[in-house]
Amino acid sequence: MIRKFLLLSLVVSQLTISCSSEDSPETTTEQTLAEQIAEIVKQPYSKLTPADQKIKLEAEANEMLTQLDKSKSSSAIEAIENLNRLLDISTVDIFNGKNDNKVEDILNISGVYGIYTWNNAKKSWDKTDSKTELKFAFPAKQSQTANNAVFSAKGVSSDVKVKYYDGYLSSNNGGKEIYDSIFLPSSSDATLTIDNAQAATFTQTAKYSSKNASPDEFAYKMTLNDGYTWEMSGKKGTETTAKAVLTYNGKNLIDFNSGSTANIDGLIENDELIQYRGKANGLFKLMDNFIIVANMDLATDGADKIALEKTLPNPVYSTKTYYSDINTSNLKYSEGAVLNFNKNMKLILVSKKDGTKIADIVQRTEKSGSYPRYVKWVVDTKNENGGYWTYDSNDTSIVTNEYDEVLYLKFSDNTEASFSTYFSKGFEKFETRFEDFIKAFDKK
């Protein structure tokens, strides 16, 4: 579950190159993020038993589920999902016949115009030229055929021009990669209307100094008339910061605040250079109930991953130990990944209401499955390897094992409980509903 919240900032930030958030309404001090985390970490552990914590956590987590469940009736989210679906069925080329676009791409252009109307009979978009607007007319629901929704966008160009990857030519045409050159927007706005009534607005701004797609500052805000508001903001520097807030009718559901010493421009040039990754920390506030504190050494974690991969056996199919070597490698990798996570990623679940630490968040290795290979080793003294593998539909003795790195809560008495067993089906439903909520904005 925690992974989903760690990934939230990445998933939604892909909606546009620029995303936003103002400071959380709850911020009343001038403490830095590091100071806030240091203060929270000093809090004592809860004295509740793990069994009592389970009851308390489920009740409070499902309070958040109740709020997210209201997104089921969000006409704006349903319309955005349907627009993405239609763009999958029939792609459009807003860059003059070069590029296939998604909803998030529409906000990332400036100086591009055209009116696209969904043709339900042909299952394609009809284009009308325009010199003033970029607009899409389409059905708000998958079950509808009438074009009762309109998504329109406009942008102001910056002076930063970048190459935009757009696929490659066929082998008959040289097989070369294709790039569009576009000016990144310094600001853009979009509006979604349904039945001539405003359903959602989108705004974003960005400031650039480097000549790549990474802005020095960005701000993004999505407001749905159904009551939801999603804001994100960020600033690049010696310490890069990012903030995000999801609210429903003014009540904070998620408040995310993070800082990182990563060299963003260096990573854009070569994301494999671990020295550019630095360290990161963050606070994830979930309604009025929970805080997840994160302290992460990304540079060391990257180095540890490289070192781990060098220690893994290299299975060779022509040898008798091929499948056992695969199992050894899978287990060693999972155990090593868990060791690295627990060393470099320090996560703590805190009760915001009680002001106490609930548990540390750690990883453990668990077998996820064993799969028969339906093969057998045939001894052959003439073969340089002493034999060879052959298919046998009746032989299930050779299996390969796979492993997962599973998140656990580690309590003050050193007892542990995995999320999958600690929370009931009700909490799993909460996770599913949360994924459904952000699904509409997930870049395909």
Task: Give the helix/strand layout.
Elements: H1 2-13, H2 33-41, H3 50-69, H4 75-89, H5 103-106, E1 114-119, E2 124-128, E3 134-138, E4 149-168, E5 177-194, E6 197-207, E7 217-224, E8 228-235, E9 240-248, E10 251-260, H6 264-269, E11 279-286, E12 290-297, H7 298-311, H8 322-344, E13 345-351, E14 356-372, E15 375-379, E16 387-391, E17 399-410, E18 416-418, H9 419-422, H10 425-439
Parallel strand pairs: 1-3
Antiparallel strand pairs: 1-2, 3-4, 4-5, 5-6, 6-7, 7-8, 8-9, 9-10, 10-11, 11-12, 12-13, 13-14, 14-17, 15-16, 17-18
Main sheet attributes: strand count, strand direction, barrel closure: 16 strands, mixed
Percent range for β-strand residues: 35-45%
Structure summary, number of beta strands: 18
The radius of gyration is 26 Å
Helix/sheet category: alpha+beta
